[in-house]
Amino acid sequence: MSALRKEVVDIDYGQELNSPNKKRIKRNKKNNNVIESIKNTVMLAVTFVLGIIIVYNYAIITDKQMEIHTLNKDIVNLNNDIAAYEITLESIKNTNSIEELAKTYLGMNYPTRKQTVFVDFKYGSPEETQDEAVKAKEKGQNILLGIVDKVVSFIQ
């Protein structure tokens, strides 16, 4: 039957009602309440400051991500512009378009045979080559070719 019995244990917490230390215990409880309230206030303040720091850092991260996104968009736009300029440059470099621009805006035509001068390089003295050029001019070979070229350019 000993298992069914409950033994009463008297625990002494050191607090007796008629004790002379009664006032001291009350003061300790007051100090404990003040200390606990200060601890709670400090913990609340620290938690609040940490929360603000975390939110601020997330705001900075978001701002940087937006800047990166904007820069990536600018890079894509600049690459598209570069591609468009390369296409335009290729069309401008085309010799047919250059020839067409020269004819329409500058009024340029191909040189006629009369305007063309062929230089023959011969090894010898420069006076001999000048004499031959003067002789060819005197013969008047270029007159007939100049007239033919004028007629052809007029027809075009």
Please report the total strand number as a whole number.
Answer: 0
Helix content: over 70%
Largest sheet: none
Can you tell me the overall shape?
Answer: rod-shaped
Mean pLDDT: 78
Give the H and E element order: HHHH
Percent strand equals under 5%
Radius of gyration of CA atoms, rounded to a whole number = 53 Å
| Structure classification | mainly alpha
Q: Helical stretch count?
A: 4
Distance between the termini: 136 Å
Query: What low-confidence regions span 5 or more consecutive residues with pLDDT below 50?
Result: none
Give me a quick take on this structure.
The protein has helices at 22-93, 95-105, 126-139, 141-155.
Task: Explain what this protein looks like in three dimensions.
The chain is an all-alpha fold. It is built from four helices and no strands. The model has no long low-confidence stretch (mean pLDDT 78).
SSE layout and pairings?
Elements: H1 22-93, H2 95-105, H3 126-139, H4 141-155
Any key phrases for this structure?
156 residues; 4 helices; 72% helix; 0% strand; rod-shaped
